Amino acid sequence: MDTQAQIKAIVEGHPVVLFMKGSAQFPQCGFSGRAIQILQACGVNNPYTVNVLQDEEIRQGIKEYANWPTIPQLYVRGEFIGGSDIMTEMYQSGELQQLLKTQ
User: CATH for 3-98, among 3.90.700.10, 3.40.30.10, 2.60.120.200, 3.40.50.300?
Assistant: First the structure.
């Protein structure tokens, strides 16, 4: 399976997916840590996470998949939502909680 197909299968196979540096238990960058905190604050305690540091092809491929240059990247029900800045804005406005409530 090529990288893009693998990413598509992950994104479409789980209701909430976060491509991040590190894991939910041990984020390895501040932005990934913030993304996990925001998801937890929204009641998502076990998002499906992908540690991009473990697979260089996934790390580069996810940037191409969403046409988004940075990590973390959040997907909800197969739809690209954004990175930690967008997650923060959506959380502050209440939009992210509404989106995740219907997961």
Answer: 3.40.30.10
